[in-house]
Amino acid sequence: MYEPIRSPSVHTPADDADFPHRSREEELDIQLAGHLAALLAVTDELGLDTAGDCIAEQVARLRGAPPARHAGLTAAAPADLHRRAHALAGRALLVAASRADTTAAILSAERMDAHTAALAAAADAAPSGQLVGAH
Fold first, then answer.
1. In this predicted model, what pLDDT tens digit does every residue of 42-72 receive, in sequence order?
2. Contact 108, 96 (CB under 8 A)
């Protein structure tokens, strides 16, 4: 009544597969390099050359090759770029901490502090919108 199954099931584990598997450390290296490369693009767009060079050094260490530096510019406001950079640095910090990469963690924390300070300075310099002396 039923015909026997002639091919292996799709649910059979692929333990003998011919493709390479990556270790957890390699996956974390790839994630960290990706977050730092994204941070590098935003940092370059902000024109922070010294910070960009430090980030590029870490990306090169993780990838084994120097990263491509960001050439295009978006029309984003500097405050938006600082917020984006802060978020990217936070992601990089999380991965660096789980990977126990002290150098990348310190760099990420420093970048978070720098972008927080830049946002605070921009907020202090912005007009408050209140009329002075109006009754």
1. 999 999 999 999 999 999 999 999 998 866 7
2. yes
pLDDT band at 124 (very low <50, low <70, confident <90, very high): confident
Q: What angle do CA 75, 93, 95 make, to 5 degrees?
A: 110
DSSP string, 95-117: HHHHHT-HHHHHHHHHHHHHHHH
Burial of 30 (0-12, 13-18, 19+ CB in 10 A): middle
Say if residues 95 and 58 touch (Cβ distance below 8 Å): no
Token pair 């910070």 is at which residue? 51
Cα(135)–Cα(130) distance, integer angstroms? 11
**Stated length of the chain:** 135
> 85 burial class (0-12, 13-18, 19+ CB within 10 angstroms)?
buried
The answer to pTM > 0.90 is: no
Torsion over CA: 49, 55, 70, 85 (sign): negative
